From TrEMBL:
<dbReference type="InterPro" id="IPR013749">
    <property type="entry name" value="PM/HMP-P_kinase-1"/>
</dbReference>
<dbReference type="InterPro" id="IPR029056">
    <property type="entry name" value="Ribokinase-like"/>
</dbReference>
<dbReference type="GO" id="GO:0005829">
    <property type="term" value="C:cytosol"/>
</dbReference>
<protein>
    <recommendedName>
        <fullName>hydroxymethylpyrimidine kinase</fullName>
        <ecNumber>2.7.1.49</ecNumber>
    </recommendedName>
</protein>
<keyword id="KW-0808">Transferase</keyword>
<dbReference type="GO" id="GO:0009229">
    <property type="term" value="P:thiamine diphosphate biosynthetic process"/>
</dbReference>
<dbReference type="GO" id="GO:0008972">
    <property type="term" value="F:phosphomethylpyrimidine kinase activity"/>
</dbReference>
<comment type="pathway">
    <text>Cofactor biosynthesis; thiamine diphosphate biosynthesis.</text>
</comment>
<dbReference type="InterPro" id="IPR004399">
    <property type="entry name" value="HMP/HMP-P_kinase_dom"/>
</dbReference>
<dbReference type="Pfam" id="PF08543">
    <property type="entry name" value="Phos_pyr_kin"/>
</dbReference>
<feature type="domain" description="Pyridoxamine kinase/Phosphomethylpyrimidine kinase">
    <location>
        <begin position="17"/>
        <end position="253"/>
    </location>
</feature>
<dbReference type="GO" id="GO:0009228">
    <property type="term" value="P:thiamine biosynthetic process"/>
</dbReference>
<dbReference type="GO" id="GO:0008902">
    <property type="term" value="F:hydroxymethylpyrimidine kinase activity"/>
</dbReference>
<keyword id="KW-0418">Kinase</keyword>
Length: 265
Protein backbone atom coordinates (compact mmCIF):
# COMPACT_ATOMS: atom_id res chain seq x y z
CA UNK A 1 0.00 0.00 0.00
CA UNK A 2 1.36 3.40 -0.97
CA UNK A 3 1.62 6.03 1.77
CA UNK A 4 2.00 9.82 1.57
CA UNK A 5 5.60 11.00 1.50
CA UNK A 6 6.72 12.01 5.00
CA UNK A 7 10.20 13.10 3.89
CA UNK A 8 10.69 16.87 3.57
CA UNK A 9 11.26 18.08 0.03
CA UNK A 10 14.39 20.11 -0.78
CA UNK A 11 14.48 21.98 -4.07
CA UNK A 12 18.05 21.85 -5.42
CA UNK A 13 19.06 24.39 -8.04
CA UNK A 14 22.51 23.25 -9.11
CA UNK A 15 24.65 22.21 -12.04
CA UNK A 16 25.17 18.71 -13.38
CA UNK A 17 28.60 17.11 -12.93
CA UNK A 18 29.05 14.07 -15.23
CA UNK A 19 31.67 12.59 -12.89
CA UNK A 20 29.04 12.29 -10.16
CA UNK A 21 31.33 13.79 -7.54
CA UNK A 22 29.73 17.21 -7.19
CA UNK A 23 26.64 19.07 -8.35
CA UNK A 24 23.18 17.58 -8.34
CA UNK A 25 24.29 14.00 -7.73
CA UNK A 26 26.08 15.14 -4.57
CA UNK A 27 22.91 16.99 -3.52
CA UNK A 28 20.68 13.99 -4.11
CA UNK A 29 22.91 11.52 -2.26
CA UNK A 30 23.47 13.81 0.73
CA UNK A 31 19.77 14.58 1.05
CA UNK A 32 18.82 10.91 0.82
CA UNK A 33 21.24 10.27 3.68
CA UNK A 34 19.40 12.88 5.78
CA UNK A 35 16.02 11.30 5.12
CA UNK A 36 14.91 14.02 2.71
CA UNK A 37 13.51 13.99 -0.81
CA UNK A 38 15.63 15.87 -3.35
CA UNK A 39 13.89 17.74 -6.16
CA UNK A 40 16.73 18.59 -8.59
CA UNK A 41 16.39 21.58 -10.91
CA UNK A 42 19.27 21.73 -13.40
CA UNK A 43 20.80 25.20 -13.79
CA UNK A 44 23.88 24.32 -15.84
CA UNK A 45 25.66 21.50 -17.64
CA UNK A 46 29.38 21.04 -17.18
CA UNK A 47 32.22 19.16 -18.80
CA UNK A 48 34.31 18.00 -15.87
CA UNK A 49 35.90 15.03 -14.21
CA UNK A 50 37.54 14.46 -10.85
CA UNK A 51 40.55 16.52 -12.00
CA UNK A 52 38.94 19.80 -13.13
CA UNK A 53 36.21 21.49 -15.19
CA UNK A 54 36.91 22.30 -18.84
CA UNK A 55 33.62 23.85 -19.97
CA UNK A 56 30.09 24.68 -18.85
CA UNK A 57 26.80 25.89 -20.29
CA UNK A 58 24.15 27.71 -18.28
CA UNK A 59 20.64 26.63 -19.20
CA UNK A 60 17.98 28.95 -20.56
CA UNK A 61 16.25 30.99 -17.86
CA UNK A 62 12.73 29.99 -18.91
CA UNK A 63 13.68 26.32 -18.87
CA UNK A 64 15.03 26.58 -15.31
CA UNK A 65 11.96 28.50 -14.14
CA UNK A 66 9.69 25.87 -15.66
CA UNK A 67 11.50 23.10 -13.76
CA UNK A 68 11.28 24.91 -10.43
CA UNK A 69 7.66 25.96 -10.89
CA UNK A 70 6.64 22.39 -11.69
CA UNK A 71 8.13 21.23 -8.39
CA UNK A 72 6.64 24.11 -6.37
CA UNK A 73 3.15 23.50 -7.80
CA UNK A 74 3.32 19.80 -6.98
CA UNK A 75 5.25 19.45 -3.70
CA UNK A 76 5.55 21.25 -0.34
CA UNK A 77 9.11 22.59 -0.58
CA UNK A 78 10.67 22.70 2.90
CA UNK A 79 14.06 24.16 1.93
CA UNK A 80 16.04 25.29 -1.10
CA UNK A 81 19.69 24.58 -1.83
CA UNK A 82 21.66 26.54 -4.40
CA UNK A 83 24.78 25.34 -6.14
CA UNK A 84 26.29 26.42 -9.44
CA UNK A 85 24.38 29.29 -11.06
CA UNK A 86 27.00 30.41 -13.60
CA UNK A 87 25.44 33.70 -14.71
CA UNK A 88 23.88 36.89 -13.40
CA UNK A 89 20.69 35.94 -15.22
CA UNK A 90 20.49 32.76 -13.18
CA UNK A 91 20.83 34.79 -9.98
CA UNK A 92 17.75 36.75 -11.07
CA UNK A 93 16.01 33.45 -11.86
CA UNK A 94 16.57 32.23 -8.31
CA UNK A 95 15.15 35.48 -6.92
CA UNK A 96 12.00 34.91 -8.96
CA UNK A 97 11.71 31.34 -7.67
CA UNK A 98 12.19 32.44 -4.05
CA UNK A 99 9.42 35.02 -4.41
CA UNK A 100 7.09 32.03 -4.64
CA UNK A 101 8.52 30.44 -1.47
CA UNK A 102 8.21 33.04 1.31
CA UNK A 103 9.69 31.89 4.60
CA UNK A 104 11.38 28.81 3.13
CA UNK A 105 15.04 28.51 4.25
CA UNK A 106 17.58 28.99 1.48
CA UNK A 107 21.13 27.62 1.69
CA UNK A 108 23.42 29.35 -0.79
CA UNK A 109 26.59 27.51 -1.77
CA UNK A 110 28.38 30.16 -3.86
CA UNK A 111 30.00 27.84 -6.37
CA UNK A 112 32.49 30.01 -8.25
CA UNK A 113 35.37 27.57 -8.74
CA UNK A 114 35.62 23.82 -9.24
CA UNK A 115 37.68 21.80 -6.80
CA UNK A 116 40.50 21.72 -9.35
CA UNK A 117 40.46 25.50 -9.62
CA UNK A 118 38.57 25.99 -12.89
CA UNK A 119 36.09 28.86 -13.10
CA UNK A 120 32.35 28.13 -12.97
CA UNK A 121 31.20 31.67 -13.66
CA UNK A 122 32.48 35.17 -14.29
CA UNK A 123 33.41 37.49 -11.43
CA UNK A 124 30.16 39.45 -11.83
CA UNK A 125 28.25 36.35 -10.72
CA UNK A 126 29.83 36.57 -7.27
CA UNK A 127 29.00 40.26 -7.09
CA UNK A 128 25.36 39.59 -8.03
CA UNK A 129 25.10 36.85 -5.44
CA UNK A 130 26.44 39.13 -2.72
CA UNK A 131 24.38 42.17 -3.68
CA UNK A 132 21.09 40.46 -4.60
CA UNK A 133 20.91 36.84 -3.52
CA UNK A 134 22.34 36.98 -0.02
CA UNK A 135 19.41 39.15 1.08
CA UNK A 136 16.96 36.26 0.58
CA UNK A 137 19.34 33.53 1.83
CA UNK A 138 19.25 32.00 5.29
CA UNK A 139 22.95 31.15 5.16
CA UNK A 140 25.84 31.06 2.69
CA UNK A 141 28.55 28.39 2.86
CA UNK A 142 31.64 29.62 0.98
CA UNK A 143 35.07 28.14 1.49
CA UNK A 144 37.76 30.70 2.25
CA UNK A 145 38.85 31.23 -1.40
CA UNK A 146 35.21 31.82 -2.39
CA UNK A 147 34.68 34.14 0.58
CA UNK A 148 37.68 36.20 -0.56
CA UNK A 149 36.16 36.54 -4.05
CA UNK A 150 32.78 37.54 -2.63
CA UNK A 151 34.33 40.02 -0.20
CA UNK A 152 36.81 41.34 -2.80
CA UNK A 153 39.65 40.70 -0.35
CA UNK A 154 42.25 38.58 -2.22
CA UNK A 155 44.32 37.91 0.93
CA UNK A 156 41.63 38.39 3.57
CA UNK A 157 41.24 36.20 6.63
CA UNK A 158 37.92 34.51 7.41
CA UNK A 159 37.20 37.20 10.02
CA UNK A 160 37.93 40.00 7.55
CA UNK A 161 35.75 38.42 4.87
CA UNK A 162 32.90 37.93 7.34
CA UNK A 163 33.06 41.57 8.40
CA UNK A 164 32.66 42.59 4.76
CA UNK A 165 29.88 40.09 3.97
CA UNK A 166 27.64 40.09 7.06
CA UNK A 167 25.86 43.31 6.07
CA UNK A 168 24.52 41.31 3.11
CA UNK A 169 23.50 38.06 4.85
CA UNK A 170 22.35 37.00 8.30
CA UNK A 171 24.46 33.83 8.65
CA UNK A 172 27.77 32.95 7.02
CA UNK A 173 29.66 29.67 7.30
CA UNK A 174 33.23 29.98 6.01
CA UNK A 175 34.84 26.57 5.71
CA UNK A 176 38.54 25.93 6.16
CA UNK A 177 40.86 23.20 4.99
CA UNK A 178 42.61 25.14 2.23
CA UNK A 179 45.83 25.78 4.15
CA UNK A 180 48.32 23.43 5.78
CA UNK A 181 46.96 23.63 9.33
CA UNK A 182 46.75 20.41 11.35
CA UNK A 183 43.13 21.10 12.29
CA UNK A 184 40.41 22.47 10.02
CA UNK A 185 38.52 25.44 11.44
CA UNK A 186 35.00 26.05 10.11
CA UNK A 187 33.57 29.34 11.33
CA UNK A 188 29.91 30.33 11.58
CA UNK A 189 29.35 34.09 11.75
CA UNK A 190 25.98 35.62 12.63
CA UNK A 191 24.86 39.18 12.07
CA UNK A 192 23.87 39.46 15.75
CA UNK A 193 27.58 39.21 16.61
CA UNK A 194 27.65 35.60 17.75
CA UNK A 195 30.32 33.26 16.40
CA UNK A 196 30.80 29.52 16.50
CA UNK A 197 33.96 27.63 15.55
CA UNK A 198 33.82 23.95 14.65
CA UNK A 199 37.11 22.08 14.39
CA UNK A 200 37.87 18.71 12.88
CA UNK A 201 40.95 16.69 12.07
CA UNK A 202 42.52 17.49 8.72
CA UNK A 203 42.27 14.60 6.27
CA UNK A 204 44.94 13.89 3.63
CA UNK A 205 44.24 14.51 -0.03
CA UNK A 206 41.80 16.80 -1.86
CA UNK A 207 38.10 16.19 -2.45
CA UNK A 208 35.59 16.72 -5.25
CA UNK A 209 32.12 17.71 -4.07
CA UNK A 210 32.74 18.45 -0.40
CA UNK A 211 31.10 21.89 -0.59
CA UNK A 212 28.01 20.52 -2.36
CA UNK A 213 27.76 17.78 0.24
CA UNK A 214 27.92 20.24 3.11
CA UNK A 215 25.41 22.73 1.72
CA UNK A 216 22.83 20.15 0.68
CA UNK A 217 23.14 18.36 4.02
CA UNK A 218 22.61 21.67 5.81
CA UNK A 219 19.52 22.36 3.69
CA UNK A 220 18.23 18.93 4.61
CA UNK A 221 18.77 19.47 8.33
CA UNK A 222 16.91 22.81 8.14
CA UNK A 223 14.10 21.14 6.18
CA UNK A 224 13.82 18.61 9.00
CA UNK A 225 13.32 21.49 11.42
CA UNK A 226 16.72 21.48 13.11
CA UNK A 227 17.86 24.79 14.63
CA UNK A 228 20.50 26.56 12.53
CA UNK A 229 23.61 26.22 14.74
CA UNK A 230 22.80 22.59 15.45
CA UNK A 231 22.09 21.99 11.75
CA UNK A 232 25.49 23.44 10.84
CA UNK A 233 27.22 21.10 13.28
CA UNK A 234 25.26 18.10 11.99
CA UNK A 235 26.13 18.97 8.40
CA UNK A 236 29.83 19.45 9.17
CA UNK A 237 30.01 16.16 11.10
CA UNK A 238 28.30 14.22 8.29
CA UNK A 239 30.47 15.82 5.61
CA UNK A 240 33.66 14.99 7.51
CA UNK A 241 32.58 11.33 7.66
CA UNK A 242 31.94 11.27 3.90
CA UNK A 243 35.46 12.62 3.34
CA UNK A 244 36.99 10.16 5.79
CA UNK A 245 35.39 7.32 3.81
CA UNK A 246 35.98 8.89 0.38
CA UNK A 247 36.84 6.87 -2.71
CA UNK A 248 39.13 7.56 -5.68
CA UNK A 249 37.12 6.53 -8.75
CA UNK A 250 39.16 8.56 -11.26
CA UNK A 251 42.57 10.13 -11.77
CA UNK A 252 41.96 13.25 -9.70
CA UNK A 253 40.35 14.15 -6.40
CA UNK A 254 38.65 11.85 -3.94
CA UNK A 255 34.85 11.66 -4.06
CA UNK A 256 32.94 11.71 -0.75
CA UNK A 257 31.06 8.52 0.10
CA UNK A 258 27.67 9.95 0.96
CA UNK A 259 25.67 6.72 1.02
CA UNK A 260 26.48 3.37 2.64
CA UNK A 261 27.72 0.59 0.42
CA UNK A 262 25.15 -1.67 2.05
CA UNK A 263 21.75 -0.02 1.61
CA UNK A 264 20.30 -2.23 4.35
CA UNK A 265 22.27 -0.15 6.91
Amino acid sequence: MKTPNSRPVVLCMSGHDPSGGAGLQADIEALLAQGCHAAPTVTALTVQDTVNVSDFRVLDRDWVLAQARAVIADMPVAAVKLGMLGSVEMVETVLEVMSQLPGVPLVCDPVLRAGGGGSLGKDDVGYAMRERLFAVSTIATPNLPEARILAELPQGSADECAEKLLPFIEHLLITGGHGDEAEVHNRLYCRDGSRHTFTCARLPGSYHGSGCTLASTLAGRLALGEELVSAVKSALDYTWRTLRDAEEPGHGQYVPRRLPLDFSQ
